[in-house]
Amino acid sequence: MNILIVGGGGREHAMAWKAAQSPKVDKLYAAPGSDGMASVAECVPIDVMDFEGLAAFAINHHVDLTLVGPEQPLVGGIVDYFLKQGLKVFGPSKVAAQIEGSKSFAKALMEKYKIPTSHYQSFTDYQEASDYLQKVGAPIVLKADGLAAGKGVIVALTLAEAEQGLKTLMKDKKFAEAGARVVIEEYLEGDEFSLMALVNGSTVAPLAIAQDHKRAYEEDKGPNTGGMGAYSPVPQISQKIVDEAVQTILKPAADSMVLDGCPFTGVLYAGLMLTKNGPKVIEFNCRFGDPETQVVLPRMESDLIQVVLDILNGEQPELLWSDQTAVGTVLASKGYPGSYPKGKKLGNLEALSDDALLFHAGTKKSGADWLTNGGRVLLVTRLGDDLRAARDAVNRDLESIATDNVFFRKDIGHRALEAAGK
Ligand code: AMP
Ligand code: GLY
Predict the structure, then answer these.
(1) For 125-180, CATH number?
(2) Looking at ligand 1, which atom is closest to the CA of residue 283?
(3) CA-to-CA distance for 394 and 408, rounded, in angstroms?
(4) Mean pLDDT value of segment 142-155
């Protein structure tokens, strides 16, 4: 089979790396891919939002299956476009992708079908939102309604922070139109985890769980980012809790989308908080998580392409997982998630051990050098029998390639170690 992966970040690199291991795959393309992905896929310079260009490429190159990584093309309707051209594609339709693209769509769905989540109100009027904040007080969470690359969320511990956050979203329009509507929701306390599933209508195949680290700095300090590292499995979240989350969240979500006439196909990602009252939804995404994918797929022993084909056929795929722990840590440009320079030289990536899985996110090759080309630059995953050992190895890997212009968190997985008293 010929496979096309749409996207060019760390998640897509991991998808391509895993797809390349499938005996079913003859030719693997990535659009636009990246210099770093060129070792596993043939990269073609077509933008993820150029649906016509991507579909024409897929037709001309006899692509049998397309996997879409990022949310923007999904929310923009790439799947509808591909299906109209008679192309096989794994991802949600434009209406179904609203589960990520519109927080108020997701919240309304959860409310209607009693899927556990935080209480919320959504606002388009600044004054009404501000009055509501005065009424409910802090801690409280504010979210831009539209897509904001994981950065449109403000967790305000005081009322002053909440007021300031509201101004940033609605008055300063930091996230432009994404902030025209703001969701204000109850603050949830507990251990967070990411539960992804391959979904087709009412068929739900849960993947191994992971825990992301959203804050920029160690000890979960600093601003929210797209994710600074992840690990899988998450031993402090029991299988019983995962099963409960599948039964009370993922299955009802998939069923309710069928009932509402917008069945979901693709990866349904639930960002969950394990509260005192059980798991509750923080957010849904309509695609693989980044960086969760970079630790979950290395643990998958099944053939990714086979399981995607099975789910597209409406069958329950067989999913097998390694018992090992995967730890993946992001190397980011100094300044991220704010502004940062590009084009800074990295150390010698070629010298990394073969046991270090290197997934490029924002890099560029210049002659023999690798340069930074984004906020999240790359991620290194290691598998090990022990979380601490895997993390130590990742830290040594990143230390060996880090320069003055980049940083990384050395404490990925700390919640698991703390829970185990280590
Ligand atoms: P989101 O983009 O919705 O995943 O939010 C980013 C991060 O903000 C989440 O991963 C949580 O760590 C935090 N967060 C979001 N919503 C809440 C909430 N209701 N209560 C507590 N923390 C939250
Ligand atoms: N790691 C969070 C996300 O992919 O949205």
Answers:
(1) 3.30.1490.20
(2) 3
(3) 11
(4) 73
